[in-house]
Write a sequence for this structure.
């Protein structure tokens, strides 16, 4: 169960993690139709599970029955039976256990297809009844329940094949059973299904379940609901609640945004498990992505698939900052693609693009430019001039030109990015914001601080409107603007921006976060420039205290904080104290780089 779109830090899930699990399950659901499962898939799963059982006689008997009699029962029968199938699958979905999911892929596909088939058959019979209410009872943690109370009118996803009952009493029994565990809240979900909507398919399965008295309805993988009213069921028991849910339409704006994001992160043209590994790489879940690649590399004999996998290995190494190895994998993929594709093929271009990124990360800017420009030439032959891929590549080129101090060329490419962005209505605003930030850095290097400030102000406007943006990103931009005003000797204005950044970070970050030390130092610096040395010292001391708590003693940030305080004592004429702080700074610097 995940709360979609939440960034609440009190949730059990990390900010954005719930969206990731939802998208992971969506990608999994979509890719299964691109895989050809065979009888061998059942054998491979059975072998895989047997290796985990060893001495578990009961489960060994169950897996034997599953392997022998799989086709004798419906997928819903197996899923609702009390053997390992549903518990194993749901555990794998919750933890994104890619090995188990690959092995169970055939079953997930069969179950999904069976639900689709039943849904289509039953749709005609239900055409005269628009609404239906079903129930599900279960226990959830207190933290998740608190999050649910804060999620009224928000989306909730069950990242599995959800079962429910038309009988409220049956579901209520399950909710009450949860009360035996002190840490759980018993919840009765009352789920309204509007059959007129294009939504997650569900089907009545009373005739094809293992225990007909318990479950009537099953939803296909990853159903999404909007949270409605929460009400206590029993006045004497605050741990038993009813939560109203409504099955959402596939056209729900919030769901549509996530699906568009999935399209960006998992190339729909990728087939099979490679699509899932690409998604995981783009979500920085590279360990899981490597597990998929390691599994697939032993099973493929096609040159194209071999090239794709080595490309993904390159991406995994790149995310781990293992750049020489990444370059080797990308070059290996490039060699294969150049042999089996046309010279301007999009896959060849992608390899050049990624090799350029590796070279940029290795500070080999001349080679990076050659690779980027080669990729750009190929992209422009294959793609429309307003394709979003060109945004990223032109930003790469602009950034490299900035690194080699060719600012006019850098700005030319950034302007090109803005032009492309203007012609793509669906472009992510965060991409535009990041472009403004990078352009501002170039103007800062050129000494045009007012132009840089103007671009950063535009960035703030975008981030404030973007519901997906992180408020601490806004704080970072406020700090950047404050630093620019300092360079213009407008210290009061700089101080105002620094204080705004601190206010945001104090609200959104834990008390010992390094970004707070940055804010304290910036404010101290502004007061120092205003010659308000006592206030400057106060904030420098706050920054220093944080540095001591969060950084090892030989870190440069700590040395800077000693120097800052020494500067204040120097200005107020306390030279003895200033000398002590300068000596402390020197000691730290010498530990960093001994003379």
């Amino acid at each position: 169960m995940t709360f979609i779109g939440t960034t609440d830090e009190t949730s059990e899930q990390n900010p954005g993690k719930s969206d990731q699990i939802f998208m992971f399950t969506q990608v999994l659901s979509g890719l299964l139709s691109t895989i050809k499962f065979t009888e061998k898939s059942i054998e491979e799963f059975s072998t895989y599970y047997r290796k985990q059982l060893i001495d578990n006689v009961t489960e060994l008997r169950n897996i034997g029955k599953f392997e022998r009699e799989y086709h004798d029962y419906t997928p819903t029968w197996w899923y609702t039976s009390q053997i390992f199938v549903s518990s194993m699958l749901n555990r794998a979905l919750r933890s994104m256990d890619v090995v188990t999911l690959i092995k169970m892929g055939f079953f997930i596909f069969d179950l999904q297809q069976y639900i689709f088939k039943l849904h289509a058959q039953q749709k005609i019979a239900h055409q005269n009844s628009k609404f239906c209410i079903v129930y599900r009872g279960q226990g959830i943690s207190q933290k998740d329940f608190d999050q649910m109370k804060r999620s009224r009118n928000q989306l909730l996803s069950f990242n599995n094949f959800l079962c429910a009952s038309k009988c409220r009493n049956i579901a209520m029994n399950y909710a009450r059973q949860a009360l035996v565990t002190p840490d759980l809240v018993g919840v009765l979900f009352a789920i309204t299904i509007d059959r007129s909507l294009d939504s997650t398919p569900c089907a009545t399965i009373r005739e094809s379940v293992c225990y007909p008295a318990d479950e009537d309805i099953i939803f296909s993988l990853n159903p999404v609901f909007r949270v409605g009213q929460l009400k206590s069921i029993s006045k004497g028991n605050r741990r038993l609640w009813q939560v109203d849910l409504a099955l959402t339409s596939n056209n729900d704006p919030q769901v549509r945004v996530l699906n568009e994001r999935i399209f960006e992160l998992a190339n729909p043209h990728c087939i099979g498990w490679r699509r899932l590994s690409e998604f995981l790489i783009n979500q920085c879940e590279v360990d899981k992505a490597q597990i998929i690649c390691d599994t697939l590399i032993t099973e493929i004999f096609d040159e194209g698939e071999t090239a794709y996998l080595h490309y993904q290995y390159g991406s995994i190494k790149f995310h781990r900052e293992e750049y020489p190895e990444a370059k080797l994998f990308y070059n290996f993929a490039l060699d294969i693609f150049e042999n089996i594709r046309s010279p301007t093929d999009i896959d060849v271009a992608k390899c050049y693009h990624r090799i350029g990124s590796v070279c940029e990360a290795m500070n080999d800017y001349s080679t990076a430019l050659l690779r980027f420009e080669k990729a750009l030439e190929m992209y422009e032959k294959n793609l429309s001039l307003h394709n979003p891929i060109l945004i990223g590549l032109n930003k790469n080129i602009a950034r490299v030109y900035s690194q080699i101090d060719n600012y006019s060329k850098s700005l030319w490419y950034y302007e090109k990015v803005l032009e492309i962005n203007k012609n793509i209505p669906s472009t992510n605003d965060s991409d535009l914001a990041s472009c403004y930030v990078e352009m501002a850095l170039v103007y800062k290097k050129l000494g045009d601080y007012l132009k840089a400030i103007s671009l950063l102000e535009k960035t703030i406007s975008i981030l404030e409107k973007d519901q997906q943006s992180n408020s601490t990103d806004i704080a970072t931009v406020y700090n950047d603007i404050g630093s620019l005003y300092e360079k213009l000797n407008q210290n009061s204005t700089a101080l105002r921006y620094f204080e705004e950044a601190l206010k945001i970070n104090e609200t959104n970050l834990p008390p010992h976060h390094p970004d707070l030390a940055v804010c304290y130092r910036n404010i101290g610096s502004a007061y120092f420039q205003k010659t308000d040395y006592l206030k400057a010292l106060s904030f420098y001391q706050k920054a220093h205290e944080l540095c001591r708590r969060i950084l090892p003693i030989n870190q440069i940030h700590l040395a800077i904080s000693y120097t800052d305080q020494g500067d204040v004592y120097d200005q107020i004429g306390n030279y003895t104290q200033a000398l002590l702080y300068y000596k402390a700074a020197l000691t730290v610097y010498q530990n960093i780089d001994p003379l």
The chain has 26 helices and nine strands. The longest strand covers residues 131-141.
